[in-house]
Amino acid sequence: MPVVQKFDYPKTESGLRKIQDELYSKTQQAIENGELPKFKGLLEIISAEATILTAIHNIKGNKGSQTAGSDGENMREHFLERQYPEIISRVQQSLSHYKPLPVKRVFIPKPGKKEKRPLGIPAIIDRIVQECVRIVIEPILEAQFFKHSYGFRPMRDTHMALERVNYLVHRTGYHWIIEGDISKFFDTVNHTILVKKLWNMGIRDRRVLMIIKNMLKAGIMDELKVNSLGTPRGGIISPLLANAYLHILDQWIVREWEHKKLRKPPKHEMNKYRAMKDSTKLKPAYLVRYADDWVLITDSKSNAEKWKKRISRYLETKLKLKLSEEKTLITNVRKKAIQFLGLNLKAVKGKSRTGWVTVTKPNPERLKAKVKEIHKNIRAIKHVSYDTKDYVVHEINKVNSQIRGVIQYYQVATGVNKSLGKFFQMLRYAGYKVLRKYGGFWTPANRTDNILAVHPNYKTWIPAIKSDGVVIGLTSLRFCTWQKAFLKNPKETPFSEEGRQLYARRTGKIPPLARADELLSLKLSELIGKGAKEPLYNFEYLLNRAYAFNRDKGKCRVCKTYVSMTDVQIHHINPKLPLNKVNRVPNLATVHDVCHNIIHSQADYSNLGKQTWKTILKFREQLK
Fold first, then answer.
1. What is the CA angle 516-522-523, rounded to 5?
2. How distant, in Å, are the alpha carbons of 179, 367, 413 from that of 363?
3. Quick one: which of 269, 273, 268, 270 has its CA closest to 285?
4. DSSP state, 509?
5. Residue ranges with strand state E in 52-173
6. Which of the 8 DSSP states describes residue 585?
7. Rounded-to-integer distance, Cα 606 and Cα 593, Å
8. What are the beta bridge partners of residue 331?
9. What tens digit of pLDDT does each residue of 437-446 get?
10. Contact 450, 473 (CB under 8 A)
11. C-alpha–C-alpha distance, residues 140 and 138, integer Å
């Protein structure tokens, strides 16, 4: 395959998506033809305005976007509230001479353990650079990754990984499993091996590889000037690079069994495996990986031990990694459960072709730790200032979110109701004792006004308070029904039209519209030319006006007719809001130039019709 050097310069988000699709499809074509994909000219796509805008939009929605890095800068004050040209220029200059700032090290608790996990927080500018690079190289790498690795990949999750293990144990009847643990994986990734791997996977733009190498070598504030090993936990691009690093391990294992090429392959896949088992000395191996957590399923204890030794040797010689002897276990799941991604899985006798079925339940230690944290947060509600019940409602909503999060994570386990049922009474009565201070009472869940998707289905009595006539209940761990997880369809991907449609059909989620960047580019110079440089017309306004236009489906909120790119204005509904709220999408409205002038005038326009006049008056009232 010839080196791909030229792409249309992405002027809009839709243009960027088209390039991502093209990178993905060209990579797939190269692999199918037995060739290595090769891409140059990637830095120009990475440093395009459309890519920078998309990167900042992606990051600003993250929970930690306001957490400052080692330079003290945060997303809102130092980026969203600055002028548009200044931010674009700053990111582009950073990409052209990239020198990352040291990361800020913090320690976060490990679930159910006393020890803490180190987390590196890059500066905001470095997060933006990492996201720009990730946006462009991810389609190239995604097209090559093993179809049964699930960690930190788009349109994949832990439930799919667990369901794959379930499926394999049930379908094959194999019950010997290696629970793999790579010792200090993120801390021991070898930079040279990783960069070579990226080169072999098609990232042939040396400028981009140098940026990635500099990212990896970023020091740690007050600890280390240059990092010679590992990928920083907390870096936006780290999970993608980790998958690229372990891709060679995936390839080697599946080449030995799942993707083994035979001279005369049978028509059906299971016949192929049966033939290999009966007529060769190959050792069965089915790999399921989630980042650095993985399991390998095989047919005997002897083969499991052989595979463990082979994998240990391969990791040391090829990737300079060590398998943890202490934590890498060989388990017969017909006698003992394995622990994988916070759940326990075991095979028990039951009605099936093999005479065994799998059962899963939340890992008791992990679940107990999560419940303990929820219990602590419920008790903390009693310390909330009672100036207004709004504060209490906010704390109840936070706890409800935690409880629903536990339910949604563990609902794929066949024994979820029994496991969660052990704790619901404790949380229920703890909640009642705390809420009594604020006028709390017992009420059936279906008579509350919150969590409407869940509570109407249950009559169980739960503790609640009344605020402004609304009944707010503390939800329960019992409000859970088992949900079978989906087996992953490998064709489902964000980088092809077919993949996006498959995802939409499975989840019911419609992919977001591409940002209306034509609006931004056509009106930007006009706004700047008019002197619209005061804080109100900052980077956030110029970014979010395109999303407001999409939300309004390109129609004027006053006259309800379509606007063109040449006569569109994005109106501030309440321009007196503080700077951190005034330019958010809910406070922006798409209007015609003429309709915008009408809103800001005092003239009588009742002749435009009752509904239109009512809308104009509402906008005028909100301006006051």
1. 95
2. 15, 6, 10
3. 273
4. P
5. 104-109, 116-121
6. G
7. 18
8. 177
9. 899 999 999 9
10. yes
11. 5
Classify the phi-psi angles of 34: left when phi > 0, otherwise alpha if psi is within -120 to 50, otherwise beta: left
Q: Is 573 exposed, middle or buried (0-12, 13-18, 19+ CB in 10 A)?
A: middle
By residue count, the chain amounts to: 624
CB 56 within 8 A of CB 86: no
Confidence of residue 107 (pLDDT cuts 50, 70, 90): confident
Q: Which two tokens stand for residue 330?
A: 């060989």
Sign of the alpha-carbon dihedral angle for 524, 526, 527, 529: positive
- Could you give the 3-state DSSP secondary structure of residue 412? coil
Q: Which pairs count as long-range contacts for 116-120, CB under 8 Å and 24+ apart, including other chains?
A: 117/233, 118/233, 119/233, 119/234, 120/220, 120/232, 120/233, 120/234, 120/235
3-class SS shares of the chain: helix, strand, coil, % to 5: 50, 15, 35
Q: What is the CA radius of gyration of the chain?
A: 28
Instruction: Give one DSSP letter per residue of 231-288, joined into a string.
Output: --TT-TTHHHHHHHHHHHHHHHHHHTTTT---SS--SSHHHHHHHHHHHS-PPP-EEE
Q: What is the pLDDT of residues 306-359, one digit of tens each?
A: 999 999 999 999 999 999 988 999 999 999 999 999 999 999 998 888 888 999
Q: What are the structure tokens assigned to 114, written together?
A: 């006393």
Smallest CA-to-CA distance from 472 within 437, 443, 434 is with 443
Residue type, 539: F
Residue type, 581: K
**Contact 582/572 with Cβ under 8 angstroms?**
yes
Identify whether the C-beta of residue 80 lies closer than 8 Å to the C-beta of residue 539.
Answer: yes
Tokens of 85: 């040209």
Residue 506: partners with Cβ closer than 8 Å, 6 or more residues away: 486, 489, 492
**Inter-residue contact 342 to 411 (CB < 8 Å):** no
